[in-house]
Amino acid sequence: MSDSGPVLSVSGLTKIYRRRGLRLPGQPRPADLVAVDSVSFDLAAGEIIGIAGESGSGKSTVVKCVARLIAADEGEVVLGGVNLMSLKGSELRAARKSLQVVFQDPYSSLNPRLQIGAAIREAGLAHGIDGAREPRFVNDLLDRVRLPSSYAARVPRDLSGGQRQRVAIARALAPNPQIVIADEAVSALDVSVQTEIVNLFLDLRDQTGVSIIFVSHQLPVLSALADRLIVMKSGRIVESGETKKVLRAPEDDYTRALLAAYPDPHKALRRRGLSAEGANDE
Ligand SMILES: Nc1ncnc2c1ncn2[C@@H]1O[C@H](COP(=O)(O)OP(=O)(O)OP(=O)(O)O)[C@@H](O)[C@H]1O
């Protein structure tokens, strides 16, 4: 981690989903939903932050607002000294180069007809990366996500779920971002494949110094991966801190309840063969 201040600083982030549509006679107007309520956190260079919480707690909405995929109602997201909330058009596109997102379902995010090599090249070209047309560009990225270069000629249906997620990660890395946001990026995968992808994220952080925000409802996954943990409930942060500390001595009842689903998240990790610090250090 660097001493030079956060790479990303989120403060007072608030998102309200307005309930539109017809009001039925005699029925009250459905209330607006405050999906994210005054969320603040910093992300350091090379840090991995995990965002935990049950379904509907607002995790995805936070990261969608941070990546400016949806507009927040209030708050600031400062990246490289610039508040992303104030950017539009070409400035916003330029900022997005630094902040890439990997989603849960790699199949829907990949064009089924496009060969893997072309899909990776396209991600580089979309951000004006020099050399993106060179074969080496695609080969290097395939290598970083540990896929053989021969996969460049395949199409998504030829790949397993885990391999497709590796391609999605390669596309996210194509513009050489400072931050990768992974939104439930391993949730749809088998446990053994989850382990491989979690280890890949850890290696990528170690090799490139990229910062990662990793959203998951699976505490064992976050235990293996995250330096720091943010626990969300009903749109608010109820607890945050060093992952090991939060999981070993949770201060909030809600965190304790989440943990109760995993009698021993560290043991669960050892079963998965994950070797991150905190998983084995008991
Ligand atoms: N586009 C939308 N319009 C209206 N309400 C929404 C929309 N997207 C999410 N919500 C609601 O906002 C709340 C937070 O949803 P969000 O998806 O951020 O939670 P989450 O913690 O990521 O849960 P999950 O893992 O199930 O997606 C939920 O009550 C959800 O139903």
Describe what you observe in this structure.
This protein has a domain of 132 residues: P-loop containing nucleotide triphosphate hydrolases (Rossmann fold, 3-Layer(aba) Sandwich), CATH 3.40.50.300. The protein is of the alpha/beta class. The two termini are 23 Å apart. It has a six-stranded mixed beta sheet with strand order 6-7-8-3-9-10, sandwiched between helices. Helix 4 packs across helix 5, helix 4 runs parallel beside helix 6 and helix 8 packs across helix 11. It contains eleven helices and ten strands. It binds adenosine-5'-triphosphate. Adenosine-5'-triphosphate binds next to strand 2 and helix 1. It comes from Alpinimonas psychrophila.
Task: Report mean pLDDT, rounded to a whole number.
Answer: 89
What fraction strand?
A: 15-25%
Structural class comes to alpha/beta
Could you tell me the number of beta strands? 10
Tally of separate helices: 11
What is the CATH class of the domain at 1-19 and 30-47 and 58-95 and 217-273? Answer: Alpha Beta
Unreliable spans are: 275-282
| CATH architecture annotation of the domain at 1-19 and 30-47 and 58-95 and 217-273 | 3-Layer(aba) Sandwich
Element-by-element helix/strand order: EEEHEEHEHHHHEHEHEEHHH
Rg estimate, integer Å: 19 Å
How would you name the CATH homologous superfamily of the domain at 1-19 and 30-47 and 58-95 and 217-273?
P-loop containing nucleotide triphosphate hydrolases
Strand order of the largest sheet: 6-7-8-3-9-10
Protein name: ABC-type glutathione transport system ATPase component
GO biological process, one term: transmembrane transport
Pfam families: ABC_tran
Family: Belongs to the ABC transporter superfamily.
